[in-house]
Amino acid sequence: MKADHHAHIALVDDHALFAESLLAALQLEGHDACRIPVEQTHRSSLGLLPTILGVTPSVVLLDLDLGMLSTGMDLIEPLSTTGIVVVVVTSAVDRARWGECIEHGARKVIAKYATLSEIVATIRRIDGGLPAMVAAERADLLRCWQDQKAREQGILSQLDQLSRREAEILGLLMAGFQVVEIARQGFVSESTVRTQVKAVLAKLQVSSQLTAVGLAYAARWTPPSPDDPRGSTRKPW
């Protein structure tokens, strides 16, 4: 990108006040910036892709939390593979998640609590053909993500040891059901459900239902679907 050309920027964020403030700041800098409406009628964030590509941006400022569309993470790779510079601007503070953004192709991740001047300065660096992020910071974020992924894979290996019924029990615990409710729903005794819960805790090597549920969420595990005879419980990377 040549230093004497201002960036053509598309802003993808469902928080109106933040988005409009950032848009005004970028336009004052002389950038050709527009906001992409986040339509909640789409089934996923990927539904925004044709609209974003339609304005032919050189830079996309992308929020990870897009409300009912869930995450903007799915947009990073398809945008970056077209040559668009993706900068994530997020309220998330988990550095492992930041590293995941970088692995998917984002050039930089900026916290929403950063000043407008920091965001504008990042765009200025990109506009001048400079790296959006120093190598050391990039390596640190990727290391955080790889460490987190290794932990998740370890937990998933333990979760794979659960029987189909044990996985269903854990899924019900994740949904907030109590033992008595699970027993009533399955037409079995409470003692049967308690035995199954104990088996889940033993295989996960934890001592409480709360910790088991926490591990499942930490690994982004999903319980088997009733209409899936295989009972797959792994989240694809």
3D structure, described in words:
The protein has helices at 16-28, 49-54, 73-80, 95-104, 116-127, 135-159, 164-174, 179-186, 190-204, 209-218; strands spanning 8-12, 32-35, 59-62, 85-90, 108-111. It is an alpha/beta fold. It folds into two domains: 8-145, Rossmann fold (3-Layer(aba) Sandwich); 160-218, Arc Repressor Mutant, subunit A (Orthogonal Bundle). Strands 2-1-3-4-5 form a five-stranded parallel beta sheet, with helices on both faces. Helix 1 (16-28) links the parallel strand 1 and strand 2 (32-35). The two termini are 32 Å apart.
Briefly characterize the structure:
This protein is an alpha/beta fold. The protein is 50% helix and 10% strand.
Characteristics:
disordered N terminus, 237 residues, five-stranded parallel beta sheet, 5 strands, alpha/beta, disordered C terminus, Arc Repressor Mutant, subunit A, 10% strand, single chain
Question: Order of SSEs, N→C?
Answer: EHEHEHEHEHHHHHH
Helix content: 40-55%
The end-to-end span amounts to: 32 Å
The CATH class label of the largest domain is Alpha Beta
In terms of DSSP E residues, the strand content is 5-15%
Q: From the 3D coordinates, which CATH architecture of the largest domain would you assign?
A: 3-Layer(aba) Sandwich
- The radius of gyration over CA amounts to 22 Å
Shape: elongated
CATH topology of the largest domain: Rossmann fold
Instruction: Give the CATH superfamily of the largest domain.
Output: Response regulator
The largest sheet, given as strand count, sense and whether it forms a barrel, is: 5 strands, parallel
Total separate domains: 2
Give the low-confidence spans: 1-5, 229-237
| Widest beta sheet: strand line-up | 2-1-3-4-5
- The count of DSSP E runs of length 2 or more, i.e. the number of strands, is 5
User: What integer is the average pLDDT?
Assistant: 87
Class from helix and strand fractions: alpha/beta
| Count of discrete alpha- or pi-helical segments spanning 4 or more residues | 10
